[in-house]
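Subject: complex prediction, re-run

Hi both,

The earlier run crashed halfway through, so I resubmitted it with identical inputs.
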Amino acid sequence: MAAGVATWLPFARAAAVGWLPLAKKTMPKPPVDNSSRSDEILYVNVSGVRFQTWKNTLDRYPDTLLGSSEKEFFYNEDTQEYFFDRDPEMFRHILNFYRTGRLHYPRHECIQAFDEELAFFGIVPEIIGDCCMEEYRDRKKENQERLAEDTEANEASDAPLPPHSTSRERLWRAFENPHTSTMALVFYYVTGFFIAVSVIANVVETVPCRPPKGSVKDLPCGEKYQLAFFCMDTACVLIFTFEYLMRLFAAPSRCKFMRSVMSVIDVVAIMPYYIGLVMPENEDVSGAFVTLRVFRVFRIFKFSRHSQGLRILGYTLKSCASELGFLLFSLTMAIIIFATVMFYAEKGTKGSTFTSIPASFWYTIVTMTTLGYGDMVPNTIAGKIFGSICSLSGVLVIALPVPVIVSNFSRIYHQNQRADKMRAQQKVRLARIRMAKKGTANAFLQYKEGRAIGARDSDSTALCVKNRSAFEHQHNHLLHCLEKTTNHEFTDELTYSELCMTESVGFRTSRSTSLSSQQGAQNNSTGCCPRRARRRAAMRLANSTVSVSRGSVQELDTLHIKTTSIPPQTRSSLNAEPGDLKLNCGEQDFTAAIISIPTPPANTPDESLPPSPAPIPGILRNTRATAYTHETVKISSL
Amino acid sequence: MGAVVGTLTMQTKQRRPSRDKADDDLEMTMVCHRPEGLDQLEAQTNFSKRELQVLYRGFKNECPSGVVNEDTFKQIYSQFFPHGDASTYAHYLFNAFDTGHTGSIKFEDFVTALSILLRGSVTEKLQWTFNLYDINRDGYINKEEMTDIVRAIYDMMGKYTYPVLKTDAPKQHVDAFFQKMDKNRDGVVTLDEFILSCQEDENIMRSLQLFENVI
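This time it finished cleanly. Structure:
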């Protein structure tokens, strides 16, 4: 139970006097509180620092070490105090939690030390107050990440291979973590070298070399030493193809591998070569072929496997894509506006380079980014004015979003992380709170079960009773009083849904008792029978199993309720017979597995219950109580 | 440069209104209430000094300002009934405790009511209960008031009950209650009828003795 509620329990119990005139049943006896009434001061010695507090203060949270009987283990008879060999500084915060009901996280303390203290004293970190919760979470997350990184690094470097791994797994591991084996390392460096070679070859290819003998024009080296470059290219591509195929073979999930970015880059890097091989030396397609060679530059991206920094950059760009998009959009807007203005301003001039609005785009971009090539300049006064406005605003338009984007990016990024974290944690928190609530609810149900069992076996009850604190006893007594007032019992969700949905009818093994109870209940207007009879009971075929529910409860409790839909005509006719509460038990006819309980209709159920899949619905009226042996009979009994 | 200044001013503007609100809130929570002296309370109630001390310590710890307002009261009461919704009943209970209709319960109200409930005579307890049921304080309990109270009590049971809670269960409960209490069948229950009927019922009399040892 949550903060400080134990103090208010006496008041809640006193307020239960208000239920007494309404109660249908007599109230249960209250638990006997044998503990001493008078409040006493406890002495807690934590490594020499003595703390004193009221016993009540510690009793507020009975599910912690200090609030429960667990502290008796630390009681020192000689000095009449509780001795804990822990950090007194931390204990101060723990004790403050009992005093104020809020747990604070001291910022200067190590998060792990704090967690350990909380774990020792049985306090869940979830109840840290909102004032300190964020700080606590951040520190904890940081710590966890650091630990995770460390363990990852450790694992990655010197974790031994799991035994019985296939060659495929070993190959994949070698590819992913080149530091694991020498072969992998060698392969890693070799591929790196070849990537570099390939990229340099691509670059050098286009450098003009000295022309061969007999020619004046400069030739790019690629054409001069065509064979050499071709051989180099072939070698590189062979290595890359081999590497790609090896990776494809070793990948645990081939589809996933083929969709990953790196593999796409690999494919794009080697494809042009093969396409070039396949394509004939045709004039028409050679243009396209030349374009394809451009893709060879993608080989440089293969370096990202070798460089952590490249990967981080790529990830950063990907994550702030929306901000970049915004920048692009605002720039586009400004460009279009200014280009239009400049075009119309310069339209009149002769020989103007602003031939069209798209042509003015180039001017606008060059001016706004303050490049100012000077290939296009305005000549008119209006053009010059707008041109200067353009360049001034260019500074703002480009310079303004960038810091905002940077700060936005950092803020939104962290906020999103935090919001997602909080949402996820909120769900977890709510789930935990719900579980705790259910726990308290379940505690009461357990207490009831314990009581029922205890009625038969006094020894085990005594044990159970001892394990519960006085607070729990009193709280359970309070809930029990509420049950008696309303004459309904608390159940849990499962049982409730069972009650609603089940189609089977349970009955007592001794039908005579149920008969007699029903007949007896006939005469008792305030007994449970008529009320309980006012349900829809369903009957099943003979092959349904006899289910006896809740052995400790009375006969009619064993009737399971089936939610059914009643055809309208019968409902109205049922409506026509109000108020007859008597159970017409005389007309019952029992067969092997079916109980027919003709129950009179009294009030119409106004809740609409979902129709359940019943084979043959038949409605039983109270005067015609016959047992249908081969049909499912639905009784609307109200 | 302008960009930097722009972003800075943007952020400070956002913070200012919230600070004003925080100041207002701070002022409101400073309202404090101190109860009368221990001796006076001991004279007015049936508790001993020790018991009053224990009660006050607990009360003060939960409500350092010395008063409980309705929301806090509802929250506290709801924690005892995790299955259902205790807020409606807590509202009626709050009104019963808050005899002065001030909107908040002070320690004196708290202790006076507890004194009646735990140490009072049978008549006093029944009178307190009558006041609880009589929502509009007109001296009569009519069916609507009773239905409200009973429905509030049934709300505390929550959804998952056994047997399954019918929507007319409160109404039937109220009918049974009026059957018993309304002697002259005039549709309302007066204080005398109430006390008389309760005194005739053995169960109620016996149960009233149960709660004496709560403190």
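The first strand of chain A starts at residue 41 and ends at 46.

- K.
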